[in-house]
TrEMBL record:
PANTHER family for this protein: CYCLIC DI-GMP PHOSPHODIESTERASE PDED-RELATED, CYCLIC DI-GMP PHOSPHODIESTERASE PDEF
NCBIfam families: GGDEF
Organism: Aquabacterium soli
Residue stretches making up the GGDEF domain: 218-350
Keywords, alphabetical: Membrane, Transmembrane, Transmembrane helix
Record-given protein name: Bifunctional diguanylate cyclase/phosphodiesterase
Keyword Coiled coil: no
CDD domains xref list: EAL (cd01948), GGDEF (cd01949)
Record GO terms (molecular function): cyclic-guanylate-specific phosphodiesterase activity
UniProt-listed SMART domains: EAL, GGDEF
Domain EAL, residue spans: 359-612
Keyword Metal-binding carried by entry: no
Amino acid sequence: MASMSCARVPTEVMSYPLADHSAMGKAHGLPFVLTAIITSLVLSLSSLHYGFTRNGTQARSVATMLVESIGAKGQAMPAENLRAMQRNFENLLSVEACYERQCQQLSRAPSVTPALQWLGDSASCASASSNSGPARTAHVCLSAADVYQDLARDLSILLTAQLVGFLLWEASTRGHRRKAVRWREEVTRAATTDPLTGLFNRSAFTSALQLACLRTDACGWLLFIDLNGFKQINDQYGHAAGDQVIEVIGNRLAAAFNGFASVARLGGDEFSILVTCRQSKRTVDELFALASGAFARPVLYDGMAFDISASVGAASIDSAITATEIQRRADVAMYAAKRHEGTACAVFDKSHDDAVRADYELRKDLLKAIERKDIDVVYQPCFDSNGEPVAAEALARWQHPRLGAISPEVFIRLAEEAGVIRRLGQQVLEKACTDLVKLRRHGLMLRYIAVNVSPQELEEPDLVEGIKRVIRAKGLEPHDLELEVTESSVMSSREKRSEEQLRTLSEAGFSIAIDDFGTGYSSLARLQTLPATKLKLDRSFISSLDTANGQMLVETMLGLGNRLGMVCVAEGVESREQLDWLLARGCELLQGFLLGKPMSFDALVKLPLYKLEQPAELQG
C-alpha cells in the first residue's frame, strides 16, 4: 500500500462560462445602432421630400417672375439680365426665357460639394408662360445641392445627439451591468465550489468526471480520500477545529496537484481527485505519493497539533465504464484501504468487490441471527485484589453456521452500519440480567454484571427507561448493573446527550465505567465532570508494563483514578509479572486471560471451583 496526498482543480480542467463583457456591450449597443439607422432613414426621406418641394416652388416663382419681367419690357430679356439673375441665385443651374420665339438661354456646371458628389445633382425645374398678350415662356432649373447640404447637416446633428445620448446612457448603466455580471459570477461560483476550501463541490466534480468519461480515449485515475478519525476531532474540539482541519488539508491537496488535476471536496471529510491522461502521465503510485504529502505534517489549531491520516481509494478511468461505476469502484477501494492503520491507499480490483459482497451477505446473516436471537453471550470474570470474583463482563459472540466464529469487531461494525446495534445491545442486556439472577441462585454471588453501551445507544432518547424496564422485569436493582462506555464515545463536546444520559443513569443508581481508558481524547477537566465510578485501563497499556515508559504511564493512570475517586480496573492481565506489578501498586480490580478468559454461563457457574487454580496472589 502506498501513501498519499492530492490536488486542486486547475481552471483548464473544470471551467464554467461566466459573463462576456464585450458581448454584453455589443448587445446593449445594437438597439442604439438600429435606432440610429431608422431615424436617419426617416430624416433623410422627409428632408429630401421637403427640400425638393421647396426648390420646385422656388423654381416656379423665378420662372413666373421672368415671364412677368419679359412682358413689362415687351421684348426678349437681355443676356446681361439673365447673368445677373444667375449671380443672385447661387443654386440656379439653367434658365431659358422666350419672347415671340426669341429665346435667351444660360446655364452653368453643377456646384456640389465633394462630400456630396456621390449623390449626384438632381435639379428642380419649373416652367411658366403668359396667359395673354405676346407669347412669353420661362424655364428655370435649380440645383439640389442645398437640399443635400441641409440633409447632411440634419444627419450630423441627429447622429451626434444620438451618440451623446448613448454615451450618457452607457456611463449611467455601466455600474449596474457590472453588478449584474459580478452577481452572475458569484452565483456560478457558489454553485460549483465548496465555500470552506474553495475547491470544486460534488456537483461540479461529477460533471467534470462525466465529461472526461465521454471521450473515446478516456483514461486516467479517480482518487477518493476519506480522513480517519475526523469525527472524534469534530466531536471533541468542535466544528471550528474540524473546519480548520478540512481547510488545511484541502489547501495542501490543492497545492500538491495544482496545474494538472481536478480536486474537489465531496462533503464532510471526503475529497476526490481526477487526473486524466491528457493532464498528466503520472502513475497511480506517484499520485498516491503526492496525496500522502497532505498528511505528512500535523494540522495546528489553537495550540494543538492533530496528526491526520486518511484512506485513499483509486479507480482507473475508461471510456467503457460509466462515471457512476468509476466513483463506486474508487469508493470501494477507499473502504478497503480503511482496513489498514494510518494513511493507506488501495487500487480497485475484483477482490474488493468480493469483499463488499461478502460484507453484504454477512450483514444479512447477522440480521437473521439477531432476529432469531442466535447471538451468544459469554462472560469474562473480574477479580478483586483478594482473588474473589466480584463481577463479570457480558460479551457478545456470534457463531456463524458456515463461517464459524465471527470477530466481535466485525459483527459489531456491521450491526452499527445496519442500524441494529440497539437491538443487539438489548438482547445482550436481557441475557446478562437473566444469567446474573441464575448465577446467584447457583451460589455465585457476583456484585454486579457489566454490559457495554455503544455510542449509538447513548444517543437514544429512551435508553434510560429501556434499561430500567429490563432490570425491573428481572427483579434486579440498578446497583446490580454496570454500564461500560468507551472513552471516545463520552468525550464529545458537540453532543451533550451522552453525558446527560450517563448522569441520569448514575442518578438512578447505575454504576458507570469508562472502558479502554487512555485510547481516546480525554481531558482532565472533561473527565472529572463525568459521572463515572470506574476507569478500565486499556489492555495496550498493561501489555507495555515490561518497559519503563509503560510502567510510568500505568502508574500515572492509577494515581489519576485514585485522585478522582474512581476505582481502577486493569484489563488484559496475561502474565504473573503484570499481576504482581499491579497488585503492588494497589490496583483494585483485575481482568484478563491469566485470571479468566471469556466463558459460557455453564463455565461461569463453576468459577468458584477454578479459584484454587488461580495464582497464589489471588487466593488471599
